[in-house]
Specification:
- The chain is of the alpha/beta class.
- The protein has two domains: about 110 residues, no CATH class; about 170 residues, von Willebrand factor, type A domain (Rossmann fold, 3-Layer(aba) Sandwich), CATH 3.40.50.
- The chain is built from eleven helices and nine strands.
- The strands form two sheets. The chain has a six-stranded mixed β-sheet with strand order 5-4-3-6-7-8, with helices on both faces. A three-stranded antiparallel β-sheet has the order 1-2-9.
- Helix 5 packs across helix 10.
- The protein is rod-shaped and about 110 Å long.
């Protein structure tokens, strides 16, 4: 109890200044409701109590007092009294992920029906559904890398844009995987929330990437072909990442989601930790009770 009292404070102390006009209005209302006030200037004060009638019928708690109590309580509630801390609602937020999608003619191969590119989109939809609410960026690359969408929690927009990607619209053919990874790192660094990179690709050229800079987001690769023959295993080794082969069931999606949502990917997420828990809402029922007398006819004039 003593610890709670020692920690008691208000989050918005300026709202307590509303007590000043409330007190002024209360004094004016008290003076205006005093039936003896208007006679004090013309009747001897010693005789005044004996000349006035009905003084013993005054309301025990006049409306002005009730009004002042309601205004004071409202000011205290809005000021945000708090005395204990609680976990932030964002502390468990899932880390942001940058999706890097290869969009080249080889991705139109039909060994993964209907095509490798379509299968990549299907897996992307499953991953987004499993990480509902998490922010995701989308990067497309071929001979050049392009930020299609910065981090957003709107999975429907991400999927719509992914469906619109095709090799025909890419401005340059090739395999600029290094540029795509660098773009993904910049997209994640721009929001300062840790995160991870997910590469969806069917192959890559030997020596297409170098070791990542220290502190870079971890990389996971969804291989749409045999990782060894496609060069993706070498890329994963160079980047210190992990290769997940595409499967006909959801086991690949489950493995990827577990890796993307690891706690060490979420370092620095905004809102991590705890915050003061405001308790002003507990005063609202009392405010409701103080307002009840005004539903009585003639109360305000009492």
């Amino acid at each position: 109890m003593m610890n709670a009292l020692a920690a008691l404070h208000v989050e918005r102390p300026l709202w307590l200044l509303a007590l000043v006009p409330a007190a002024a209005l209360w004094l004016l209302a008290r003076r205006g409701s005093d039936p003896a006030q208007q006679w004090r200037s013309v009747i001897d004060p010693a005789l005044l109590p004996y000349l006035l009638t009905g003084g013993d019928q005054r309301v025990r708690i006049p409306p002005a007092d009730w009004l002042f109590a309601a205004m004071a309580l409202a000011a205290a509630a809005i000021a945000g009294p708090a005395w204990q801390r609680e976990p932030s609602p964002f502390a468990e937020a899932k880390p942001t992920v940058a999706i890097v999608l290869r969009v080249t003619p080889s991705m139109l191969t039909e060994d993964l029906a209907p095509t490798r590119l379509d299968r990549a989109r299907q897996k992307l939809a499953d991953i987004l559904a499993a990480r509902e609410g998490a922010s995701t960026a989308l990067i497309a690359y071929a001979g050049s890398a392009h930020l299609v969408l910065p981090p957003t929690p709107d999975s429907a927009v991400i999927l719509d844009l992914a469906k619109a990607l095709s090799p025909e619209i890419m401005p340059k053919q090739g395999d600029d995987l290094a540029g795509a990874l660098a773009l993904a790192r910049r997209a994640l660094a721009g929001i300062g929330q840790g995160g991870a990179i997910l590469l969806l690709a069917d192959e890559t050229l030997p020596g297409s990437v170098e070791s990542q800079p220290a502190g870079s987001p971890p990389v996971t690769i969804l291989a749409l072909r045999d990782a060894e023959s496609a060069g993706l295993a070498e890329v994963a080794k160079t980047l210190g990442g992990m290769v997940v082969p595409t499967t006909p069931d959801q086991s690949d999606v489950a493995a990827i989601v577990r890796r993307l949502d690891r706690g060490d990917n979420a370092s620095g997420i905004a809102g991590e930790g705890d915050h003061w828990s405001e308790a002003g809402y507990w005063l609202v029922p009392i405010l409701g009770l103080l307002a009840l007398p005004w539903f009585r006819r003639g109360w305000g004039a009492a």
